[in-house]
Amino acid sequence: KAGVTQTPRYLIKTRGQQVTLSCSPISGHRSVSWYQQTPGQGLQFLFEYFSETQRNKGNFPGRFSGRQFSNSRSEMNVSTLELGDSALYLCASSSPGQGTSGGELFFGEGSRLTVL
Amino acid sequence: AQSVSQHNHHVILSEAASLELGCNYSYGGTVNLFWYVQYPGQHLQLLLKYFSGDPLVKGIKGFEAEFIKSKFSFNLRKPSVQWSDTAEYFCAVNVKAAGNKLTFGGGTRVLVKP
Predict the structure, then answer these.
(1) Measured between alpha carbons, how far is A22 from A71 in angstroms, rounded to an integer?
(2) Does the CB of A109 have a partner CB in chain B at under 8 Å?
(3) Higher pLDDT, B28 or B52
(4) Closest approach of A13 to chain B, Cα-based (Å)
(5) How far is it, in rounded angstroms, from Cα B15 to Cα B111?
(6) What is the Cα gyration radius of chain B?
(7) In this predicted model, what pLDDT tens digit does every residue of A36-66 receive, in sequence order?
(8) Which of A3, A4, A102 has its CB closest to that of B98?
(9) How would DSSP label each residue in A27-88?
């Protein structure tokens, strides 16, 4: 069974540009979450999508957005990039997480964004 | 909002030594608890989980963790570490019935000397 696939793996952008990252979840998983990992702030939750609807949202500015498609694939977009957006962006998929058994996530290898 | 704290940022120990990593969370409601591990060059993966029941849970590679509700703690242990346990370990909390959102601790880098 294929794991979570993220593309691109590495990218370099300049300030003010925008970027779109893609995530393909494990087959059958309908929940996709995004996290930002930096040395200073650690792992921070961005948002979670389930059945094309945003179910949870972290404390990030509106420049960070995402969406999920009918095949459960997800994209996240960061507009007007800032130097501080340089990070590893992790996507994770999960079974629905409904009821009381949420939080068991399968992570991709991440997309490493460098903003110059 | 919930928060998670891990007591040690870095731990260095020799093979065969015992390992214990502390984790405390703050949240007044019911939670699911996790330890995730990131081996060098690999993706983040689940080490063990607690949803309910026996507060002592066993995970992969000989790791175990104990949930102490009164102390809001979920400490990770391994009786005898190996060089291959060198990794960064993250404690995480999920609020029950609120989707899959995880709040992570800051992580503990563990270096096992051969």
Answers:
(1) 13
(2) yes
(3) B52
(4) 23
(5) 10
(6) 14
(7) 999 999 999 999 999 999 999 999 999 999 9
(8) A102
(9) TT--EEEEEEEETTTEEEEEEEEETTEEEEE-S--TTEEEEE-TTS-EEEEE-S--GGG-EE
d(CA B114, CA B112): 6
* pLDDT above 90 as % of chain A: 86
Return d(Cα A6, Cα B20) in angstroms, integer. 33
Find the helix or strand (DSSP H, E) in which B47 lies.
Answer: strand B45-50
What confidence tens digit (pLDDT) does each residue in A13-40 have? 999 999 999 999 999 999 999 999 999 9
For residue A56, give both structure tokens.
Answer: 């949870």
Provide the pairing of β-strand A74-78 with A19-24: antiparallel
At position A100, the amino acid (one-letter code) is T
